[in-house]
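Narrative summary of target 7.
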Amino acid sequence: MGQTSEGATGPEGPSAAMPGPGPRAITWSGFGREMGLILLVGGAVWLLFAFLIHPAIGWPKLAPVPARTMVIVGLIWWLMRQRGESFRDLGLRRPNKLWLAGVLGFAFLFANLLIFGPLFAELRDALGVAPSDQSFFDPLYGNLPLYLMWLTLAWAAGGFAEEIFFRGYLLNRVAALLGGQRLGWTVAVLAQGALFGLGHAYAGFGGVITIGLSAVLSGVYYLVAGRNLWPLIFLHGAWDSLGLTLLYLKGVPDF
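Modeled conformation, tokenized:
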């Protein structure tokens, strides 16, 4: 996976930036077994938090469950080992050009802040959909320990684990399942974005739409970055950190 060639299109070279040789082939039955196990384990973790842990600490059932994604990533690591793969095959590897990976990370962040974030909000408003429900984070205002806790989770579960699962594992698996050609990569980018949006149901329908669109965009960024995850990890962690910081200062963002 992630076969590269010389060039400067992205941190890993032009051959990796667009559909082509890369993800290992996988059968429908093999993918079904992996996803079945992931859904079973992820569902069990969600049920544990929704019906036992969240009520015990006074959180709503649909509150975020960062532990679920981290457990799933641990499971993915094990599944990949069975196939002789590693996270490096998904893009968790040192970029050929560190400076270029850094530039891309900042470019993606500013593109989201200045262009796509406002654009998706306008699209949501044009459809008459309510903004993301961020009421769950109301206790974050002025609460430094809670802010630091969520900031840590933003990088560990959001920036790291979610990028490995959605942009790394899921996107590559779906593309491989569909032949690894342009159509396969297109469907994979859309599929992981839709599932990512649905995974944020706690933010309401408006949040599902805008977060899903942002995830589709991140899938495109992943290809532009030569299927290297580090610019996406930076983007995700920095984006969530900005949102949490605004919530902590009571400047509630409308993304």
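The chain has one domain: 19-248.
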